[in-house]
Amino acid sequence: MLKVEGVSKSYRRNGWLGGERQQVLRQVHLEWNRGESLGIIGESGSGKSTLGRLLLGIEKPDQGSVTWNGRPVTDRRVRRGTISAVFQDYTSSIHPFYTVRQALLEPLKLVGGQPDTKDMGKLLRQVGLDESYMDKYPHELSGGEAQRVCIARAVSSAPQCILLDEAISSLDGSVQMQVLELLKQLKESSGMGYIFITHDIQAAAFLCDRIMIVCSGEIVETVATPQLRHVQSEYAKELLRKVIS
Amino acid sequence: MSLLEVEHLRIWDGRTGVVLVPDSSFRLSQGECLAIVGESGSGKSLTCRALMRLNRSGIRQSGRIILNGVDLAKLSDKELRPYRGRRMCMIMQNGMRAFDPSRPVGAYLLEVLSIHYDWSRSEMNTKLSAAMTSVGLQDPSAVMGRYPHELSGGMLQRVMIALAIVLEPDVIIADEPTTALDAVTQYEVVEQFVQLRGRIGSAIVFVSHDLGVVRRIADEVLVMKEGVIVERGKTSQLFTDGSHPYTRYLVSSKEAIRSHYLQLMGGTDVAEG
């Protein structure tokens, strides 16, 4: 279980010397349970990506704690093999000099296995690609293919949770759908859970069991997806009203 | 008579000879909004930029682009200049890259206006301020004093729309104007476009891969695939029974997410409600 307790985070606005601090997150509490997919929704600048980085342990909160089964996620050993990430910019997510094979091999080595070509072929087929992609470089892939490789890489260490930060936002509508379907399918087949950070409410409603709405660094409301239309807060209602379906 | 007629537009890479758009023809009437949809790499943006001859230098084009009876393809670069901006105005996807990063936004806007009109500086300022207020920019003079990187994507998009309002072009070409924005800002910018149509009689070419946005704004839709226009039709008709398999594929892929959402929300379309 991933648990966030009383987390606050601020950044200095102008460089690291002097300048006022801007509060990005205020007293955030959340729990993510195994096998669950949780959507985190908010406008740009709402602090959702900062929350994502704190959940991944790649940044430290000013206050509060982020723990995985009681242990802090900032410890690399805690998050290795338990939580992985897929980001929006698929072009910069894969080392440009690495082939798909090398990109997939790296996390497998980290979790300490003896990966072979067969395993990697299986991974690629899982995301709708095949062995012929093994020796391609990132620039030879389309956006959708590159993002699939990123997902395959995230899945490769068999984590319990994958954090996706706007992972489908820069893909074409039709490719978005394929990736969402893939995520759904992986969830059903291997019990993987997601933390899906996005501004796209429709996509979140499609994939997630629970949706959390973030505004100006605070959690406004958390709602089970089937109850989405019964949101209480004015902000959440406004947000839903502005969905272009 | 059509306002804009594009006939046998062909775009190719001058160095490799690879044909990117083999043969496109379409027309646009006064006040109409035509959406061009398709996946990345289908040639939507190439087509748009070709209308104003703005593709990078290696890209070659042929065919007729007739605006109000004048064939733009026959004009020299110098003769085309008064058309760019004034008669055909482009709204880009990425505001951050569309403006000059080294100068405040206002300086850029005034320069554009001074090329096309011989208005006085105060006249230009008044017109710009009015247009900026009308697109929801509360404090126009503050916005004009800012550099592009100090403004959000949504604000820059509004600045471009405001400029279009002042220029009153015949055709506005909007190339993925909402793609880089979050859902709320996207909604607001789309509303600005809807209002823009009511306010000035410009025709709009609206390029997008977001079918939800297209459904909201366009009268007609062109579907492009690998450089070829595979279908054209009225928006409502295309969404319900497109005849080309590719159209149906595009619509259906979004439809699963949309219908799931609408069902969750109780079967009513919140955007149109």
Describe the structure.
The complex is a heterodimer of chains A (245) and B (273). With 245 residues, chain A is α/β, with parallel strands linked by helices. Chain A has a domain at 1-74 and 162-167 and 194-245: Rossmann fold, CATH 3.40.50. Helix content of chain A is 34%, strand content 26%. Chain A has helices spanning 48-55, 76-79, 90-93, 100-110, 117-126, 143-156, 173-190, 201-207, 234-241, and strands at 2-12, 21-32, 37-41, 63-68, 71-72, 83-86, 161-165, 193-198, 210-215, 218-224. In chain A, strand 7, helix 7 (173-190) and strand 8 form a beta-alpha-beta unit. With 273 residues, chain B is α/β, with parallel strands linked by helices. Chain B has one domain (4-264): P-loop containing nucleotide triphosphate hydrolases (Rossmann fold, 3-Layer(aba) Sandwich). Chain B has eleven helices and ten strands. In chain B, the strands form two sheets. In chain B, strands 6-7-8-3-9-10 form a six-stranded mixed sheet, with helices on both faces. In chain B, strands 2-1-4-5 form a four-stranded antiparallel sheet, covered by helices on one side. The two termini of chain B are 35 Å apart. Classes of the chains: A alpha/beta (245), B alpha/beta (273). Chain A: This is ABC transporter ATP-binding protein. Chain A: InterPro entries: AAA+_ATPase, ABC_transp_ATP-bind, ABC_transporter-like_ATP-bd, ABC_transporter-like_CS, P-loop_NTPase. Chain A: Keywords: ATP-binding, Nucleotide-binding, Transport.
List keywords for this structure.
heterodimer, A: 245 residues, alpha/beta, Rossmann fold, six-stranded mixed sheet, four-stranded antiparallel sheet, 10 strands, globular, B: 273 residues, disordered C terminus, transport (chain B), P-loop_NTPase (chain B)
